[in-house]
Structures are given as C-alpha cells and as structure tokens.
Design brief:
The protein is an alpha+beta fold and 79 residues long. The protein has one domain (4-75): Carboxypeptidase-like, regulatory domain (Immunoglobulin-like, Sandwich). It has one helix and five strands; from the N terminus they run αβββββ. It has a three-stranded antiparallel β-sheet, with no helix packed on it. It has a two-stranded antiparallel ribbon with strand order 1-4. It is elongated and about 40 Å long. InterPro entries: CarboxyPept-like_regulatory.
C-alpha cells in the first residue's frame, strides 16, 4: 500500500499537468445560403479579440486556445 500511494499521486499530478496545458483549436467553414464557401470573410473570436480571414474554401482556424467558452462573429463585404 505504501508504494501504491506515491504512484497514484504521480499519475494525478501528470493528469493535472496535461489538463493545465491543454490547448484547443477552433475551425470552421463560412458559407452562404446556398452552401457555397465565402473566401475573404472575416471571422472574429470575440473574447480574445483575434481575427482570421477565410481562405478560398471559406475555411478558418484559431489555434492554441485555452479551453473555455468563445463567441464568433463573421462579416463579409460583397463587391
């Protein structure tokens, strides 16, 4: 039993360290009403004040975020 406690404590510490350093990505695709991709649309991650512009396929990605709740806003100016 004396050996089990330090091993258990080590694994708990290891899991806590991994959870504390967990990173996540948010990605998606911006499309119009007919489901066609919208290249050049602006996507804002409101809480972090980060902005991405969609690629030719309408795809965006925010990388290395801490876990949490986020809001996205999109805008596009048609020409």
């Amino acid at each position: 039993m004396k050996i089990l406690y330090p091993v258990f404590s080590f694994f708990c510490l290891l899991l806590f360290t991994q959870a504390a350093s967990a990173q996540l990505n948010i990605n998606g695709k911006v499309t119009d009403k007919s489901n066609k991709p919208i290249p050049g649309a602006t996507v804002k991650l409101v809480e972090k004040n980060l902005v991405q512009v969609t690629d030719q396929e309408g795809i965006f990605e925010f990388k290395d975020l801490t876990p949490g709740t986020y809001s996205l806003s999109t805008s596009y100016i048609a020409m």
